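chain below, 238 aa
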Amino acid sequence: MAIKKKFIVLASARTGSTMLCRTLNEHPAITCYGELFINNEEVPWMLDKTIQRGLPSQYTKKAAREKDPVKFINALMAEHQDSDLFGFKLMISQNENILSWVISQDDWHIINLYRSNLLSVYGATKVARASRQSHIEIGESAKPIKVDFDPIEFNNLLQFNQLRRRQVNLMLDDKQPSYLSLDYLALALASGIEQVLNYLQPVIKKVLSPQLVKRHDWNVLGRFANPTVVENTSFSII
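prediction:
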């Protein structure tokens, strides 16, 4: 069996991308890698060992993957010719060259993940770093951690995320009109998995269940040690 479809999970932080990749890997016809362009030398605790499996030995260092990213992706696909679909995750802040290349290709499917509630993104990002739990496995408990809200830090994240998202969406609208955009809320409620499968259309039909657990309830303010500061902060929207 040769790879019939290629896809990329294009995401920003805390949008459910790891859960989606893990879940897609439960499908017998799909191979989905995680962040192939993460700096694993600096943040080894963030690596998803299940998704990062099977990298050719010459590409275990980020520098080797970054040197010729297209050659690297093609080499990795050659290792998975038994998969009907092959994909990987790319954060919107990672490797502009590979992002531009994928978007310019007509034969790549793009799953564009986002999260409308950026206060939730900020809180979840800080909690993940403080707890060193980038995600919660089924059967695992989240560490009960609250974090401080920093208005300047949040507004910086807000403006960067909005600006970068706008740039990426313009690139997608210009070259890839058939991409799938999906809010975190849909993934958290499980309906997003079905939307992704309908978009990718694997040859084998299988119902998939989320493979990671949502860390928090829907009380965003409850993640912060200083919720009154959050309530009294003006957010800069650009």
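Strands lie at 5-11, 30-35, 85-91, 108-114, 136-137, 180-183, 212-213. The longest helix spans residues 151-175.
thats it, cya
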